Amino acid sequence: MDNPYLNISNLRFLIGAFQLTDIDLSVRQGEYHVLLGPTGSGKSTLMKCILGLYKPSCGSIILDDSDLLPLPPEKRDLGYLPQNYALFPHLSVEGNIRFGLHSRRLSASAEDKEVTIQCDAFQIGSLRERDVRTLSGGEQQKVALARALITRPKVILLDEPFSSIDEGSRRMLWFDLKQAIRRAGVTAIHITHHLEEAYTLGDRLSVLVDGRLVQSGRKEEVFGQPAMESVARFLGYRNIFYGETRSMFGGTEIELGDFSVKTSKKIPAGERVAICLRPQYIKIIREGDPIRKSLERNVFKGEVVSIFMLPEHCLMRFQISGSSSPFDLELKFPAYIKERLSLSVGKKITVALWEPSIIVFRGS
Prior knowledge:
- By secondary structure, the chain is of the alpha+beta class.
- It has helices spanning 43-51, 93-99, 108-121, 137-149, 167-184, 195-201, 219-224, 229-234, 336-340; strands at 6-15, 18-27, 32-36, 58-63, 66-67, 78-81, 155-159, 187-192, 204-209, 212-218, 240-248, 251-255, 260-263, 272-276, 282-285, 299-309, 314-320, 329-333, 348-353, 359-362.
- It has a six-stranded mixed beta sheet, with helices on both faces. The protein has a five-stranded antiparallel beta sheet with strand order 13-12-11-14-20. A five-stranded antiparallel beta sheet has the order 15-19-16-17-18.
- Helix 5 (167-184) links the parallel strand 7 and strand 8.
- The longest helix is centred in the middle third of the chain and has 18 residues, at 167-184.
């Protein structure tokens, strides 16, 4: 990345039996960057290295051309929103927010103005005198974020900020949080294992697996083209298979046991690969309908094994004719498709793979 605002290079850190290994991470100024990964992947450990709570064994952390490693946490110009918000129970809402101003050494009138700006920004002016222990999870988050932003940090780090908030309230708070950080003009690094949260909030994403940063990029790239099998599995991709390649005219055929998949990608014959077939790109072909060119090389007949109705979509398991597996493919589609196509367990149907969506992981 050209001229990153925050640049982490070759960072290593060992804690117990766990190690962050050769972390390279770049974040642009003003970016909302999400650090994504399963529980135990090292996200919070990396954040604590950035904050100065842990000292890496090697590597560098450069923020706005300044080396952070020699600096104590309070000198790094970083804001922090911890997972449990860490509000001071003996202070009111205003007392908590005002606490963040201690390092800025402002006059009393300037402090009052800054507190009012933050309360107005988060629409919590009516809560200024409230005991923080009486607040809802969303209100506590706003107070903690106001306290972090009032210091005017260069970067704010958010550690699973929605983990204690119920699912129903979470989505609305996503937009409030990002809008507040955008309005403050602050660069953000947000860690989570929640996929929808990451996609909704992130401008760019980095995926951490087992202490290694395995992929970074625009969210569309990361979700649409995972770089390796471990990323695909974490992102919830179904239909991951292993097979061996053989050459064919116009591309490669991959033998997967009970069936094979054809792709225009040219891969040497005899290579062991993993492939990922995204469930939303497996199309149901209605009888009599023409088959598009991008689907015609991977058409399978079979039957519906099971259907799972979810609030916003439907998951269906499909067994290919002649297969020995309980099911071969999982499809995902809008719920109305089930009724439109009269889908039910045992129904004979035809499906096809949209060829551009086939992901091949080599070296598996």
